[in-house]
Amino acid sequence: MNNETQTHFPKDFLWGGAIAASQVEGAALEDGRHWSTADALPYGVFKDVVIPPPEDYLKKDGIDFYHRYKEDIALFAEMGFKVFRLSLSWSRIFPNGDENEPNPLGLAYYDDLINEIRSHGMEVMVTIVHFDIPLNLALEYGGWSNPKLIDFYLHFAKTLYERYQDQVKYWITFNEINVTLEAPFNGAGIQGTKDTVDKSTLYQAIHHQFVASAKAIKLGHEINPNFMIGCMVANSPYYPLTSNPDDVMEAMKRDRETLFFADVHVRGKYSAYMKRFFKENDIKINITAEDLQIMQENPVDYISFSYYMSYCATANPEKNNQELGNVKTTVRNPYLEISDWGWQIDPKGLRYALNQFYDRYQKPLFIVENGLGAVDELVEDGQGSYTVNDDYRIKYLEDHLKQVAEAIEDGVELLGYTSWGPIDLVSNTIAEMRKRYGFIYVDRHNDGTGSLKRYKKKSFNWYKNVIATNGESL
Ligand code: BGP
């Protein structure tokens, strides 16, 4: 810890890493698995719909985690992970989403995988759905616009809870639930884009997810009262571009597009500003008294979020036209650098976001994704092997973690930190290998070539040391 910061991370702080099934496993059609919406991205949304995905689709083989997980988990253990966040592929367990009986081979795979993680003494954090709805539920049922998805989801959640109740303590009901607003197919299995899907349909689907989430929290606590069940949002706070009150109001409005999702999960009801928004935009949603009761009675145990960047808001439509990140069109912050993919790098924004959430909710928080996607170059390490000198990644993570330490000093109750993609994986929406986040390099390329061999990057030992010193080395 440097001199400016006196803070110490809590003694039981959960350091670790996070992945998602569809971005690592591969084995897309092995052992009874069937297609998911994640396999159909980006083809299902940005180009003409191509289903099933074409042969060269990268997620089809992923980084072959399905077969190599023992080697990968041993590397995470070597770094000293206290927790490992993963998702379990819905379409591996219920290939079409609407079956009664789970696929025994899918469950057998996850039995082994979870045992392996536990055998290294790590806590397991499961994201029940991470952007991968069985494709059949999207095509035949219209995704989450259909209330039937609630029961299919609960059946899936119950299967996981009952089977892994003694091994998994931390659960997340939906990954980045607010992404449904920007990417309806990604988040809710609704075909179309944010500009083409009707707003009532979109918010109805989101409402179904809220109900499913609350019911899943109730069910989970009935099965094991010690479960910690949380929501997860993509958290990119907005700053006003200028001190013009119109910019300030715009920033407040755009922040609420995210806060709305956490508000509902914590307060169990729609805030007044959303009711006004629905009214003014003629958005009609079917919300029953029973829905509201179940939401009210089952708030989350903690709030988790991903943090990659902050945004700026301006009320001037002429300036509001720059593509930043994967999905948002907004305006660039003149004070911030951007990553190779145009994501604004803002460590202090993480301290700001942590404080904003803690002040608002007074609930434990968990940072479940953070990291730098960059182009890495594999070079000889002078000892007969290869490495990546990723000082830029170390800097990004170090700068962010120092701000996390500041937030803890501010009084924020933070349960843990899992970096995104501790091993290189296929990026989500753009489905590329070129964008790498890992401490471990995977020899696989955009064209599908590569030995799939794993190499430790420079950041591997750096993160190992951060964990070993519980953040004192920062
Ligand atoms: C989040 C997703 C992850 C992951 C990450 C990085 O939105 O939860 O699945 O992909 O972003 O995004 P990308 O893969 O586009 O770099």
UniProtKB/TrEMBL annotation:
Which InterPro entries has this protein been placed in?
GH, Glyco_hydro_1, Glyco_hydro_1_AS
Q: Among its keywords, does the record have Amino-acid biosynthesis?
A: no
User: Care to name a GO molecular-function term for this sequence?
Assistant: hydrolase activity
Keywords linked to the UniProt accession:
Glycosidase, Hydrolase
Q: Which Pfam families match?
A: Glyco_hydro_1
The record places the active site at: 369 (nucleophile)
Domain of life of the native organism: Bacteria
Recorded family membership: Belongs to the glycosyl hydrolase 1 family.
This chain belongs to which protein, by name? Glycoside hydrolase family 1 protein
